[in-house]
Amino acid sequence: MTFTFQRLTRAEFPLLAGWLTNPHVARWWNHETSLEALERDFGAAADGAEPAEDLLAFRNGNPLGLIQRCRLVDYPEYLTELQTLTEVPPEAMTIDYLIGEPSDTNRGAGTAMIRAMVAQTWTDHRDTDTIVVAVSAGNTASWRALERAGFQRVSAGSMDPDNPIDDPLHYVYRIDRPQPAR
Question: How far apart are CA 42 and CA 25, in angstroms?
């Protein structure tokens, strides 16, 4: 599988809206999907006016999903919450991700997409040596994909859930940049 990533633009908002309404995505992303809501939640990143990157993931040239990537220091409230559970290096980044269509789930595409994004992050952000991801403990598919992509669980504890119906228990995962062989 070949993965490429490009910044989300407003032209892809209808695609994203469709993905966000799919039950396997809506359960964990809990987003409104009106044009106004998409503009509110994704417009600033699409314009480059927000430090987060909203990236469409393409597998073999076809849209597969969305990955959000950001430096944790750019979101101090979230960083502070995460630091109650684990050490977070100053240059650490985080990702969030979704696979858009149900037919693409449970086939290893999420794991492969995450691996490709990790490799791309090491290339795009040379000063970043760590990616830290907090996942709702109930989202088994998500944390298993992280594990298969090489992330290690480093902590567990309470964080504000994205979806108010979820338990606050989150698992925290980490992957570090590979060190060159000596």
Answer: 16
* CA 138/CA 163 separation, integer angstroms: 11
The pTM score is 0.95
Residue type (1 letter), 182: R
Residues 178 and 131: their CA atoms lie apart, in Å, by 12
Tens digits of residue pLDDT in 82-134 = 999 999 999 999 999 999 999 999 999 999 999 999 999 999 999 999 999 99
Please state the length of the chain. Answer: 182
Residues 6+ apart with CB under 8 A from 41: 31, 32
Helix residue ranges per DSSP H, 85-171: 109-124, 140-148
Please, which pLDDT band fits residue 5 given cuts at 50, 70 and 90? very high
For 3-126, which CATH class? Answer: alpha beta
Count of other CB atoms within 10 angstroms of residue 161: 18
CA atoms within 13 A on the CB side of 180: 1
Do residues 25 and 98 lie in contact, with contact meaning Cβ atoms separated by under 8 Å?
Answer: yes
Strands 152-158 and 169-176: antiparallel
From the list 103, 36, 38, the residue with the least C-alpha distance to 65 is 103
Distance CA(39)–CA(43), nearest Å, equals: 4
Alpha-carbon span 136 to 76, nearest angstrom? 20
